[in-house]
Design a protein that fits this description.
single chain, mainly alpha, Recoverin, domain 1, 2 domains, 2 strands, calcium ion binding
Amino acid sequence: MGCVSTSTVKKSEMLHNKIAADMDKIVVDGVGIRHCQYEYVKEFFEHVDEQKEGRVDVSALIHILHDLTSKDYNQEDVARSMHLVDDDGDQKLNFSEFRQFIYCFLNAEPTDLPNVLFFAADKNESCTIDAKELISISQKLNIELSQEQITTITKEMGDEFDGSISYKGFQRIVAKFM
């Protein structure tokens, strides 16, 4: 990478500040990325996608996490979190996958596997997991579940009247199977 202009550094700082400010709102409110934050995440993605490929890799994610938190993250932990949201398996995140990664990160440390699993599975950011999302995350973990097993899990462990599983219900599932 060549020299970075002062305007690029200032833009990077501005974007980091926007994301960091919105991150606090998400954690306090306990909800997913709202529409107003979508624009910041999109702008941030476009900024870190230096090659303009429409995808970012694990090294870019490590830099993003460090920029947002000033913490150093282990490549293995970040790669594991990335794998859980990398729907096409290309080891890079497109914008949709990146947005899901940010949602996971805003709600769970990369080292906290049960929390990462929940937020990676919660594709629609509803703060619950439905049967389809449970199947998807179990496949990412190479766990084969039959439709009967999924139905049993959602009936027994789900604590929502519609069969969806809340965060607490998911923690019970993780404790039972891990």
